[in-house]
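Much of what follows relies on a compact textual record of a protein's fold. A record is reproduced here so that you can trace the correspondence yourselves:
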Amino acid sequence: MASSDLEDLCFHINTKISTIKKTLQLRNIGQEPSLKSMLCKIGNEMVFLHDLLNKMETEVQQQEKLKNLLKELQKSAERDQNEAQHLRENIPPHLPKPTQSCITGLTVKCEEQTKVVEPERAKKPTKDPRLIKEVPLITAEEFESVPAYMKGRLTYDQINAVVQDINKAVVSKYKILHQPLKSMNAAVRNLYHRFLEEETKDTKGEFFIVEADIKEFTQLKVDKRFHRILNILRHCQRVREVRGSRLVRYVIC
């Protein structure tokens, strides 16, 4: 048995022992009639707080996305402003006047372009390719910020290798979903219907995969190491979990 596996086993056993001790203590407390109503009230408050924290987490993630979009918009506006300022500061003092031959040539060229453009407008516009959202790779700074107990012996390259496999599964899945049904064989059509059945109201408009997609489209093993890396990706806000119908969906943030 490798030393890392032994450490994980010891940690797991110690956690279970600590949980059992706390459970026994709480059971003894719960047997006192005067405290039963209080414990029931605390339990209800905990459920309420859990729901409230979930809503707050969702709101924080939405605000983070909005912040990133605003940053990109600000950068784009700054680039446009710098280009406009450069053009303003570098206007030539004298612009050449167009000659009569240039004017005639431009008129003929515009008429030809108009004739060419008119039949093209009658053509059916081509559909833009649908974009598939992928998980961004973990940066070195983010890797350093992950707690040591969460990383264990995992390396930066191992985590990003799993990210690439997840992206491979996401792209493969949504390429199938974007295909017309008539072009699918029986096996692909079965996958297509499974993908639709896994959709919920919480995943509408989102890109997500399940463990079956990892097994279907990659060689990655869905084991304890894989779930540890998923915890790191959740910590770095790369994915989030949506549970329901005995299925865990990993939504791309």
Observations:
- The mean pLDDT is 84.
- The radius of gyration is 29 Å.
